[in-house]
Amino acid sequence: MSFVVPTWELPSLPVAGSADRFPVRRIYCIGRNYAAHAREMGADERDPPFFFMKPADAIVQNGSIVPYPVATEDYHYEGELVAAIGKGGVNISVEDANDHVYGYGVGLDMTRRDLQMVARNMGRPWDMGKGFDQSAPCSEIYPASSIGHPAGGAIWLTVNGETKQTGDIADMIWNTPESISYLSGLVRLEPGDLIFTGTPEGVGAVVTGDAIVVHVDGVCDLTIKIG
User: Fold this and answer.
1) Confidence category of residue 227, pLDDT binned at 50, 70, 90
2) Which end of the chain has less neighbouring CB within 10 Å, N or C?
3) What pLDDT was estimated at residue 42?
């Protein structure tokens, strides 16, 4: 079989401690999953989880220079723990959810905030505010067999060495197993899916030349620069 247009390279991420790579199938993101961030965005933290998506080829490798995107004047960082699904399933129980996780990484949900806010205020989808080119920087994936399943620990983000976000992944409104369980009741999760689990308070804008570092205890650091 041949294709009528050129095919593209499968998006993937390095696996820590291995020459192998983790193929990226879909990217799900949880909105407003820390109470303080929900409040700073004007939401009620008691709401059930909701999800939006980014294209798989929005992945950016750790250490990259990310061009400042077009069509925005308010480009925001959101540092997050990322869960990488290794075994598919539907209606996964909370108790079984960790069995479906291959490993974890550290990610950035980069956001064209001005476009997102216009869409939100008009009752329109967030796609162009969230799912644009190079909007999903992510670290290498650390297998759960090596680091376990992080349930608590500091998450922080710096811009040019200045701390902007601090929190603890234990402060998620919906923890990782609960989020996996809920999402698998909406769609069938498949190997290669990534789940960006939400960001703590302190989101803000960056400009060309800024260097961003995101850290999650027990996982790793993610570093990018805005080009």
Assistant:
1) very high
2) N
3) 67
DSSP 8-state code for residue 147: H
Which residue bears the tokens 């075994």? 87
**Which residues neighbour 124 within 8 Å (Cβ) at sequence distance 6 or greater?**
118
**Which tokens go with 34?**
């820390």
209: region left, alpha or beta (phi > 0 left; psi from -120 to 50 alpha):
left
* One-character DSSP codes across 120-146: HHTT---HHHHSSTT-EEE-PBEEHHH
| Nearest alpha-carbon partner for 204 in 82, 78, 38, 66 | 78
The owner of tokens 């920087």 is 137
Query: Cβ atoms within 10 A of the Cβ of 134, count?
Result: 17
pLDDT tens readout for residues 150-202 = 999 999 999 999 999 999 999 999 999 999 999 999 999 999 999 999 999 99
Q: Is the pTM of this model over 0.90?
A: yes
Cα–Cα–Cα angle for 204, 209, 213, rounded to 5 degrees: 55
Look-up: residue for tokens 């999650």? 216
Residue 35: which H helix or E strand, with range?
helix 35-40
Residues 77, 66: Cα–Cα separation, whole Å: 12
Which residue in the block uniquely carries the two structure tokens 């689990």? 197
Q: Look over the chain and give the mean of its residue pLDDT values, rounded to a whole number.
A: 96
> Are the CB atoms for 164 and 155 separated by under 8 Å?
no
Nearest alpha-carbon partner for 9 in 53, 59, 54: 59
Is the pLDDT confidence value at 46 over 70? no
